[in-house]
């Protein structure tokens, strides 16, 4: 069995356990007033588990493969060092730096920096569009989390407030 099918089998087993928990155990402790709501806390996990089970079954059964095309591997592992790995590794380092800087630097500075540097690593060179869009997206996400959802998210670094 190919590697993608083994991975699909593992994901299928995990999603079946997750789906069992979503369908049979998550709603057992709901208070009586929530039992009449159209959307329960388990609604999204139910949808997610069903979609993941269907997707992994499609891969496991080989329904996504085209029969008329010659099979070309996506990545040739024997030539791995010939690929341009620098952007991928730089993005991984940037993700770790973002996670470490989120609290001390604040959400707005760290997220906008992550978006700008990440886009620059991926090859975006129109900074006159990139910087305002990244700042706007960061501000909108911060407002939605802080203002709409009511979850405190430190916008500025520690030393600024």
TrEMBL record:
Residues annotated as transmembrane: 7-24, 44-63, 83-101, 107-123, 130-153
InterPro entries from the UniProt entry: DUF1468
Keywords: Membrane, Transmembrane, Transmembrane helix
Cell cycle listed as a keyword: no
Pfam families from the UniProt entry: TctB
Source superkingdom: Bacteria
Start and end residues of each DUF1468 domain: 6-153
Protein name as annotated: Putative tricarboxylic transport membrane protein
Organism: Aliiruegeria haliotis
Origin organism lineage: Bacteria, Pseudomonadati, Pseudomonadota, Alphaproteobacteria, Rhodobacterales
